[in-house]
Amino acid sequence: MPAAPSGPSRPPIVVTVETIERFFSTTRPLQLPWFQRAYAWHDEHAARLLSDIITAMQAERRNYLLGHILLAGTDEAPRFFLIDGHQRAITLTILIALLRDRAPTEQDKNRLSALISPSATAGESGDAPAYRIITQPSIASVFLRYVQQVDATKNDALDGDEILTEIETRIIENRQRLAQLLDNHLESDVAAWQRLVGFLLERCFIIIETVDDENEAWTILSVEESTGIPFHSTERLKISLIAAMPGNEQQDAARRWHAWQAKIGDHALQRVVHHVRALQVGVRSNQPLEQELIRRLRLNNSGADFLDRLMEPNVARYAAIRDKKIGGGATQQQTAKAITYMQWLEHDFWMAPALRWLELHGADAPDTAEFFTRLERLAWFQRMTSNDPVQHERRFIRLAKEMSGKVELEALGALSIEPKMRREMRENLLSRTFYDKRYSRLVLRRICAELGADPGQIDGVNVSVEHILPRRPEANSPWRKGFPRDSGKQLANRLGNLALLPFDKNQEIGVRRYEEKRPVLQASAYPISLDAAVSDLWTPDVINKRTERLARLLFERWQLPFGD
Fold first, then answer.
1. What is the mean pLDDT of the chain?
2. Most buried residue, 27, 52, 373, 400, by CB count within 10 Å?
3. What is the pTM for the complete model shown?
4. How is residue 121 annotated by DSSP?
5. Backbone angles phi, psi at 392, to 5 degrees
């Protein structure tokens, strides 16, 4: 690889396009950080890579792009850190090793060996030579014996007595699948071997992105992942975390992980790990989830503390919170109600301080019910006064961190509702554009539940929002007589003008007069509609007063003053 520009004019990221041969010819090794995600490609992924290369070759493509790789390292560094693209890099190394060990001549073999064999740079200790790819210590021995060394791909591991980890077995299985595909394609034909090697090394390209700082590389990767397709499946999370642990701990760790998956489910287990990270770090982090845990907790030394102290109890606490089994009697009823309302929200950032409370105080503490009630209040105020989930998460992590000092409930500043937030909530509930706000259906459901019955999710089909005063009354409509010309803008979308009905009933009454709508509202199963039907007439004054009354209802439930 050509040296990136150095000095003050060096750009923050250098992008080059390299052939496979040039990429693997760097004199500096490419090292996977020890906390890097584990090798996760299965044999179908490896087979797809080779099949695509062969297909491109047979189509006589002038060049074929194999994706991109993200590296971190300065010109002076003894090695590059391979931040992203290591799944592809390891698989390509296996493929090159298989071709090396099938080379028809010594010269051909040496050409491919040079792409894998020791570089001019010594390894970590200075005693052992460094190969082009330096894997994590947990798989280094197997990768050396069955891939990197000359003729290593002729060694058979799966038929012997050697006990391999899940990741090590995957390396061997991928090697065998690639070997089978190669043998089927080459059929011992020297010309076919030469053609494939020439295409792979000279006409297959990789985009190389290089940054100086390793932390900057992780930030780039995190941004790509958080704004694209979700990257952290529970399975990958499991593989990466367990693979980082010492080999003698991995079997028990995998058994426990599977038990947790069975207990709370894949997504819930992933969220537990997310919350554990938040509680450990104490700030919102942009680092990839598993890498940060592996690095901070030194899982390469031992995973026991992570499993015993962090995961096991928090899985149990998470399940208890999710299933609303906190405390007994009145405490359980009060916490169950608060948890239900929080579970309606899009994000579960509130779970981190909930877990911390149970850790510090337990389910039967005198203040547990009150804590969950106030936590629910904070979660709803966060949702309705800010549309920034990053801000929400930071607030809840700050609360959890504040709780770590074992501060009494009344002294938890991050749990309180500031006057500014209270004013914003009141203004949002009283707004003439309430219906258009992103949370309007959530609030209508909450009010309905507080009045006696949860209508379920307002999906527009089973449950839909009814504007009692139509938003666009017809020109000759009786609605025009009792309301000003701009009533649609000023009143129709206010909280006090809204009710809930099944979609078919909503369509049925449409823009009819209130006298015709009222019997339908009275027959509704939804308390918020029954509340509206109490009025004999529907006027601007009724809408305004009902708006304030329903808003006050929520403030009363949250035990907050409605005024300043």
1. 88
2. 400
3. 0.69
4. S
5. -60, -50
